[in-house]
Design goal:
potassium transport, 6 helices, cell membrane, transmembrane, elongated, KdpC, two-stranded antiparallel sheet
Length: 183
């Protein structure tokens, strides 16, 4: 019995050390060397050095003077990040989208873009398509007392082209630039 138990326990301890300690430390070390900014959360710091957020996680912006991100199923809390799991046939989803559409609607702009009404898979996607940003442009410019062309130029500067997929705009980075630009 001891001849079977001893190798089994030794193998269990060895595999625990490899998969629970050595491998995670190696991956963390490689990530810190190769991609230090991303490995530390892609944090965004203000002029005072305080962390304002992460470029990878959406934040809620309220008020007419800010560009709004897509809705979050988890109220922008990273602990509860997940999709709403509401089926297209679920009346609760239809009610939430209808309420979001009424809240986001801008006069004379046509229908609200779908990206402003639907959540992402994680509920924390910080990006929007440029069309969803442009839909909000007139509201933000009017609220800040800026010419639309000035705000449009700022939006153009923040359009990112990922390696795969359509162009996107990071709402947090755009709003930070907007805050630095206007009172």
């Amino acid at each position: 019995m001891t001849s079977l138990l001893r190798p089994a326990l030794s193998l269990m301890l060895l595999m625990t050390a490899i998969t629970g300690v050595i491998y995670p430390l190696a991956v963390t070390g490689i990530a810190q060397l190769a991609f230090p900014e991303q490995a530390n959360g892609s944090l965004i710091h203000g002029l005072d050095g305080q962390v304002q957020g992460s470029a990878l996680i959406a934040q809620d912006f309220n008020g007419e003077s800010w560009f709004h991100p897509r809705p979050s199923a988890g109220a922008f809390a990273t602990v509860a990040s997940a999709a709403s799991n509401l089926a297209p046939s679920n009346p609760a989803l239809a009610l939430r989208i209808k309420a979001s559409a009424a809240e986001q609607a801008v006069a004379d702009q046509g229908p609200v873009p779908l990206a402003l009404l639907t959540t992402s898979g994680s509920g924390l996607d910080p990006h929007l398509p440029p069309a969803a940003i442009r839909y909000q442009l007139a509201r933000v410019a009017a609220s800040r007392g800026l010419p639309e062309q000035t705000v449009e130029q700022l939006v153009k500067q923040h359009i990112e082209q990922p390696l795969v997929g359509p162009p996107v705009v990071n709402v947090l980075l755009l709003n930070r630039a907007l805050a630095q630009m206007a009172p």
